[in-house]
User: What shape does this take?
Amino acid sequence: MIPLQIQNFCQELPKISPAELQGKLISILEEIKSYGIDQVLISYPDFFARLLNQIKKSQPAELFSENSKAADLFSDLLWEGIAGQMAQRAESKAVLQKAHRKMRINIEASDSSFKNHFIVQEGRLARFWPASFQG
Assistant: This one.
């Protein structure tokens, strides 16, 4: 069963103010990461749509610039969730398996620290870290 704190956050998400979101974002994303985003998406399949909508209302460049940990946690959960959902859908798996070569996609915001990198290879989608970003 999904922890009560995650349930409450998911249910209240459309009504959360930008200030409240900023105050809760890291702790709730950490809890979701610990629990498992795939489990959350089973009960709340629109979780990312709701969260992205609230982030958009919260001045995302400022939110992620001031708090790179929130950006990193969000990125981790986003790609873990996308990869998990793609792996469960036959249509998506078929498209990924037809990729004839490795594809790397980079997304970097120009107004914040938000960066995402993912790769399609061997019929799967996964987040990756380019060598220039690895420690």
